[in-house]
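Entry: Tetraspanin-8
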Amino acid sequence: MFRLSNNLVGILNLVTFLLSLPILGAGIWLSNRANTDCERFLEKPVIALAVFLLVVSVAGLVGACCGVSCLLWLYLLVMFLLIVILFCFTIFAFVVTNEGAGRAVSDRGYKEYRLGDYSNWLQKRVANTKNWNKIKSCLADGMVCTGLAYKSVNDTIEQFYKEHLSAVQSGCCKPSDDCGFTYISPTVWNLTVGTAISSNSDCSLWSNDPKVLCYNCQSCKAGLLDNIKSDWKKVAVCNIVFLIVLIIVYSFGCCAFRNNLRR
């Protein structure tokens, strides 16, 4: 049993160690090549993740294969905390993404989004001006609206209304249907506002400037939250599988730790 549990923990941590090296390399590459706020936002988390995996895998590898009980104990402690954190995050992710969905619009292929439909916690994340300015920079760098403009540049209004737009494209790249603007192209509209829709604050925020569009609109924030909601649900499901794997590895680690003490 000693050879099985200790060797298995050692092999798993060797694989983790090897995986951490390209992640660390990617983080260092980002730090040297980052030109935008979006790229600079990613560099520190990537490097931190790589260093964390590197240190933990070395502790597990040495502790299991060399019989160093203190390192293996530290490895098991980190694994236990990681299991608890992932479990809590998974529950939290399901709770905060339980609210909110796009609203179907008659004779439209896309949906429209309202910020108030989503959980208060998610709303607060995009309500902060500093946070939202960084997000806007990422949206612009991602050329989400530019891609829509090129793809549908020759669409008639009937064709455009049948487009299946993503939540971000619907919220950020065009004005709300409530505004009653006249369609010219997907990202260019004749700014003629009817009296019946003056209550929609997003109408006054729309601009045909490609750098502005509806990036300051509540609908854009709502579209982003809908994307986050969808992604978080997928992550939460993956976390369940990851948790099962971590618990199995943790169990083998406990066996290896007991074996070290017996030796």
